[in-house]
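tRNA pseudouridine synthase A
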Amino acid sequence: MRYFFHIAYQGQHYNGWQKQPGAISVQAVIEKALEKILKQAVPIIGCGRTDAHVHASQFFFHADIDQPFDFDLLYRLNKALPQNIAVFDIIEMEGLPHARFDAVQRRYDYFIHTYKDPFLSNQSSFYLAPQLDLKKMKAAVNLLPQYKDYRAFCTQPNKYEHTICNVMEADLFVNEKGDRIRFHIASNRFLSKMIRILMGKILKTGLGELSLDEFESLLIDRQTPKTLDPAHPTGLYLSKVTYPYLNLPPRTEFLHSTQGTDWISVKL
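Predicted structure tokens:
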């Protein structure tokens, strides 16, 4: 029987989702917990791969469990997992749906704070840049859905068959004080470090180090720049994953209102 697991995790202590030798990954921790509970190895397939130290406020993986179980697996798994990984739902699926290949949309949010705050250091990226030109950054963000080829915003474009991404949503939000920023983007797929590279270039436009025309030329020319300068991983969250047959709201409250923050879309 195939099951979909609806989870979330804080990624600052993990070397990403994907299991790899010599590193602690979210996948490896969950597989170890499942093996301990079910008394057999249970390989799991995630809906994507998050970078080291990147978070997921919504994530799905699937697993095939051969033997029926007559206990509360949700309870036991949450008890076995560390506090920074939570399982919200275990959903019995018909047929063999695929957590990665069947996803039709993934949404990410990237959080920035421009003042030093020890309570935000593991949740949001700190950039000491209080004079960011938010309108210029918003103009850069508005360009994204107009283009399809994101080859210039990828660390390894040649490993893909193509670098086309259908960006459906892109927006820039700010809090009332103007010292916290959220970049939101949704697409059918993303390339290696694409969002962090995009965020790095958007920040450069806000700092006056990159003109709007230069930013757009990266989308038009599709040439990898000499320096990519990806933004810090800490502020990045995989925030929603949608399937044709499964569209669950995120269970975490982090994105919508964090510590009383009301997010306002930046106006041009």
